[in-house]
Write a structure and sequence with these properties.
With 207 residues, the protein is an alpha+beta fold. The chain has nine helices and five strands.
Length: 207
């Protein structure tokens, strides 16, 4: 199975690309969020999910392992296939999706093209009490940029998880902590530091 490809972007299309890896062109299905970051002729590294069904073999590509993990988590939900999963992740980043689920904000999820209110409600309901999916690493969430020369930075989702853990250690229930942190992150934005998230969440809860 293919888990990662590194090569040069040969062609960009609607919902797909061709990645030239040593003279072999791999056709990879990608969401709009991923395609917007890539340029024909430039080097790229894609995290790959390989899906085989009967006589069908498809490669789905992502610029981060975090997005690939969420792509698969979404498809664990009844009625959500690859197309809907891509649509959700094109509309909401993983951190925004987790926050929307924690706040039961079905309207934000329903903004995804082709995702109706019923599926959006099901997604929010299924995800609201679950931790973020772990990526292909040592049991932890990883997020690797496509440009390997750039230093890796903590993701908003990682800060979210750390803030939730800190609030749980202070005596809050996991659900209350997640909702408080989701509200704080929505107020502060994805660039908020861990300290800011914790302080704002506690303030909003009147603690």
């Amino acid at each position: 199975m293919i888990g990662k490809l590194k090569g040069v972007i040969d062609t960009l299309g609607s919902g797909e690309l061709i990645l030239d890896v040593g003279g072999v062109g791999y056709l990879v299905q990608c969401g709009a969020r991923t395609l917007r970051t890539l340029v024909v002729g430039e080097a790229a590294q894609l995290h790959i999910e390989t899906i085989m069904r009967q006589d069908l073999l498809r490669l789905y590509g992502f610029t981060t392992e975090e997005e690939r993990a969420w792509f698969m988590r979404l498809q664990d939900i009844q009625g959500v296939g690859p197309k809907a999963a891509f649509a959700v992740l094109d509309t909401l980043s993983p951190a925004e999706l987790m926050n929307a689920a924690a706040l039961e904000d079905k309207a934000s999820i329903a903004r995804a093209q082709g995702v109706g209110p019923r599926i959006a409600a099901r997604i929010a309901g299924e995800l609201k009490d679950k931790p973020p999916p772990t990526g292909r690493g040592l049991g932890g969430l990883i997020s690797t940029p496509s440009d390997t020369s750039a230093p890796a930075t903590p993701s908003a989702l990682s800060s979210n998880a750390e803030a939730v853990s800190a609030l749980v250690n202070l005596g809050l229930s996991a659900m209350d902590a997640q909702r408080a942190v989701a509200g704080a992150q929505r107020t502060l934005g994805e660039e908020a530091t861990l300290d800011q998230l914790i302080r704002t969440a506690l303030k909003d809860m009147g603690t």
